[in-house]
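FAQ

Q: What does a record look like?
A: Structure on top, sequence underneath. For example:
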């Protein structure tokens, strides 16, 4: 219910009561000394507010009974005070707008039916009956039109509510998707940077304990500082990608292959990629290199990026470890995260053994 409807509804009751008072006064002025007619007028005067209260509280049987009494009173009073036809009109509008068509039609006909019986019994002219039937029919049709308009309004309101619920659900889904996207970016940046930094710091701690190579310790600390700086650069790049800026895949992969243990081979003509597929390929390569360093220490890793007309593919292959890998901790979600990210970008990811090493291949349409 909108604000305009709330302002209108409180006015209906006093307006209806004013009309009731006007009708009662006019009809009473024509009845003069007819006690039974005054009794009928009292019935009609009581039936109208009774119907209003019953209808407002959903008491359908009481409302129907009040309308029946009002219509009969109007039909029986009409020969003595023609303005009593107003009661018949009220019944037609009220029943047509609140009841099903057939019950409403029967209630609308009760007033004319009572007048018809009285006309036959007293041998009166049928002119008043004709006008009463016409008024009842017009009121009934008007009530049906109002009921139909109210149903259309309710239907439109329900559609609006459903549309609003759909929009809210879509907005929530968009927010959740964006949160997942940000969470993936944070995980990928931190996982790669902190994993490599942990390896360097562990090596530095080992050198410090033995105390036999200050130059090696200084070199490890320099590498650690470089990893921190690279991590900051990665974070800035991730923020740019979240702002839907194109991804320069080759530049990102060149920064990833910054030492002698990782090589990069570019095939085809490099081009900027859209944020989602570009990041998916880069993160897949980054995770694959991180896993190679973790599970195959000392092994060389080869990154190949192939710019085809319909797709872009990044492959990472590493050989067997040159040294025993560190003790495995709790299993992570790197491979699963790579696959989810690539599939969300409309691509596919394959990972498995490659001879004595491991290979990861990610392809996205472009």
């Amino acid at each position: 219910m909108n604000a305009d409807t709330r302002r209108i509804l409180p006015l209906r009751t006093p307006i209806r009561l004013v009309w009731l008072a006007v009708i009662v006064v006019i009809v009473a002025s024509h009845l003069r000394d007819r006690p039974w007619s005054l009794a009928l007028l009292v019935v009609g005067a009581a039936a109208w507010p009774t119907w209003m209260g019953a209808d407002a509280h959903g008491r359908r049987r009481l409302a129907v009974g009040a309308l029946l009494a009002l219509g009969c009173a109007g039909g029986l009073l009409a020969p003595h005070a023609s303005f009593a036809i107003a009661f018949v009109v009220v019944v037609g509008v009220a029943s047509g707008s609140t009841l099903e068509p057939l019950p409403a039609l029967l209630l609308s006909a009760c007033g004319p039916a009572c007048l018809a019986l009285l006309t036959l019994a007293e041998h009166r002219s049928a002119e008043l009956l004709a006008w009463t039937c016409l008024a009842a029919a017009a009121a009934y049709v008007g009530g049906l039109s109002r009921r139909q308009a109210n149903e259309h309004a309710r239907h439109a309101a329900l559609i609006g509510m459903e549309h609003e619920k759909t929009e809210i659900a879509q907005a929530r889904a968009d927010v959740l998707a964006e949160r997942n996207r940000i969470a993936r970016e944070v995980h990928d940046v931190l996982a790669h940077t902190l994993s490599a930094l942990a390896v360097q710091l562990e090596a530095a701690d080992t050198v410090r304990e033995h105390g036999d190579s200050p130059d090696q310790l200084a070199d490890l600390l320099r590498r650690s500082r470089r990893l921190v700086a690279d991590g900051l650069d990665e974070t800035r790049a991730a923020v740019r990608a979240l702002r839907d800026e194109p991804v320069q895949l080759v530049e990102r992969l060149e920064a990833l292959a910054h030492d002698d243990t990782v090589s990069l081979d570019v095939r085809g003509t490099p081009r900027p990629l859209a944020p989602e597929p570009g990041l998916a390929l880069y993160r897949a390569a980054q995770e694959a290199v991180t896993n190679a360093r973790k599970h195959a220490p000392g092994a060389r890793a080869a990154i190949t990026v192939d710019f085809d007309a319909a797709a872009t593919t990044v492959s990472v292959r590493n050989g067997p470890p040159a040294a025993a890998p560190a003790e495995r901790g709790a299993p992570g979600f790197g491979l699963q995260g790579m696959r989810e990210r690539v599939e969300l970008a409309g691509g596919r990811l394959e990972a498995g053994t490659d001879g004595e090493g491991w290979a990861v291949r990610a392809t996205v349409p472009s």
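Q: Is there anything notable about this one?
A: Residues 295 and 325 are 5 Å apart (CA to CA).
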